[in-house]
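Late entry, written up from scratch paper. The run itself happened at the end of the previous shift, but nothing got recorded in the book at the time, so transcribing now.
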Amino acid sequence: MKDKPNCYKCKHRGSLSGDSHSRCEHPINAEPGDRNPVSEIMAIFASVGRGGPVIGDTAVEMNIKGTPHGIRNGWFNWPFNFDPMWLESCNAFEPKKANHTDKERS
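Output as recorded:
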């Protein structure tokens, strides 16, 4: 069985202000300057037990899979706001450089 990806050690992991969750800032996703906060908020609201997750072309291309429990409870709203604990697979992982100063979790 392949090891579960560790977002905390990926160079594409972004943080969220006031939240311990992550966001994916892989170049295949929208550039940071292109973010639409209203769309992100609406996607987060829609994910909390009100509907199924939106699985876009990007998620399919990167082989993003989250656990059903995390998705159902709104804890895995990739790429906007997700807890990496619920990530099952990601083909886009790239390790951080050794001199990266972010706090790493194991």
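Residues 40 and 80 are 6 Å apart (CA to CA).
(Scratch paper discarded after transcription.)
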